Amino acid sequence: MELQPPFRKIIHVDMDAFYASVAELDNPELKGKAIAVGGEGRRGVISAASYEARKFGVRSAMSGSLARQKCPHLIFVKSDFPRYKEISAKVREIFFEYTDLVEPLSLDEAYLDVTENKKGNPSANEIAREIRQKIFEETGLRASAGISINKFIAKVASDINKPNGQKTVHPDEVIQFLEELPVNKFYGVGKVTAAKMYNNGIFVGNDLKKKSLEELVKLFGKSGVHYFNIVRGIHNSAVKPNRIRKSLAAERTFSENISSEIFMLERLDKIADELEKRMLKADTKGKTITLKIKYSDFTRQTRSKTKGHFMQKKEEFFPVVKELLFQDELPNSVRLLGLSFGNLNTEIKEPVWVQLKLKFKESDFFNEEE
After folding, report:
1. What is the pLDDT of residues 215-242, one digit of tens each?
2. Of 24, 52, 103, 109, which one is the catalytic site residue?
3. Is the model's pTM score more than 0.85?
4. How far apart are CA 44 and CA 33, in angstroms?
5. Of 2, 86, 321, 326, which sits with the fewest C-beta atoms within 10 Å of its C-beta?
6. How do residues 42-55 score in pLDDT, each as one tens digit?
């Protein structure tokens, strides 16, 4: 099957090791060293690592103690979110010089639709190159980019020539690119799904393509439809500059595992304070409250309840939180608790979990690629 024009021109810009690079920018003595942003202690978690640290196997979401084992000379630095937000805002200003169709995914990455752009430049590849150069000139940081006909392929492509590079997948290259792509490189396919694919003889896109829609749905449920489409280059999600939050949440990881439900309730009380604060600030109300629990063995569980009316204040929703906590006996001690609101009175499908700092423990379509 050949893809039919007209094609969109989508760029995915991803800052290179953003948090770690900001630390190097602000502390030049760290340049070229193995650094990790995050906690060093037994319960610490790595949120970012420099490329020098990654050579030793240090990765985000890894415990600080394991990171230290892998890289004994690792330098730990604290997160600085006000600084990250400051630089992120400068980077977004650059994006808006080219298009208003900018969809931020986080502080360090975004999609841009430059099919029609403010510079009148027909080459998305040239635009991506210009943007990356401007980011470096104005912030001192490097970025990578992926360019293609849809968000999915652009996102996958941005990883290929990292750091400080870009990859273009031209419309007439899309099908071959996807057929040859290892399934673990497909955006959204994690270790568990990849392992399931391997067990079913699916190693690259072409293997995935040989499976019928019915087979994929049987294996992967609703996601099977997604896999069936994306391997054929079909991904029609538009760049959404005005995404409206569909859920709002807060969570806390504890310095020590908690087994007492009374202590859990105390923690949830503080988390609820923060959630109420965020609901009021966003002028948002919701009908569904969800309790998120991560146990000491890293298994997760969520418990939800939907009311017939909108809630916003803690006094309205905290009785529901108590109900959810005592709904069933907890099978293990707990290392993380979180609360989220869904079914909001507004129009991001995924909860925006916030880590709390609490004291308790065609020829002109693209130019030649880099």
Report:
1. 999 999 989 999 999 999 999 899 988 6
2. 109
3. no
4. 20
5. 2
6. 667 888 999 999 99
